């Protein structure tokens, strides 16, 4: 544990950010997985789930959780499956 006050604060802020980023990334993965399952099962709500997955991928890319090209690649592959 650091002794300097600013370093102590950085540790706390980084921990908070890490938790928030982990939750956001997990939620993104969940929406993508739901969309993939809906497309595979040819569910009637697959378009809604695809839109939700695209939105979560774009949001993750804009926040820097994943690279923008990775988001584009995942969106493209999802769209190709649908």
What's the quick description here?
This protein is mostly helical and 82 residues long.
Please describe what this structure looks like.
This protein has helices at 5-41, 46-62, 68-81. Helix 1 runs antiparallel to helix 2 and helix 2 (46-62) packs antiparallel against helix 3. It has a single domain, classed as Methane Monooxygenase Hydroxylase, Chain G, domain 1. The relative contact order is 0.13. It is an all-alpha fold and 82 residues long.
CATH hierarchy: architecture: Up-down Bundle
CATH superfamily: Ribosomal protein S20
Straight-line distance between termini: 50 Å
Query: Compute the gyration radius: what is it?
Result: 17 Å
Instruction: Estimate the mean pLDDT confidence.
Output: 96
Q: What fold name goes in the CATH topology slot?
A: Methane Monooxygenase Hydroxylase, Chain G, domain 1
Largest β-sheet summary: none
Question: What string, H for helix and E for strand, traces the elements in order?
Answer: HHH
Beta percentage is under 5%
The 3D shape can be described as: elongated
**Any idea of the CATH class?**
Mainly Alpha
């Amino acid at each position: 544990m650091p002794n300097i006050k600013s370093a102590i604060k950085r540790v706390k802020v980084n921990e908070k950010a890490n938790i928030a980023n982990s939750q956001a990334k997990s939620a993104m993965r969940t929406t993508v997985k739901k969309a993939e399952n809906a497309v595979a099962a040819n569910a009637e709500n697959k378009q809604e789930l695809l839109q939700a997955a695209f939105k979560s991928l774009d949001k993750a890319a804009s926040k820097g959780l994943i690279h923008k090209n990775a988001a584009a690649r995942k969106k493209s592959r999802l769209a190709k499956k649908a």
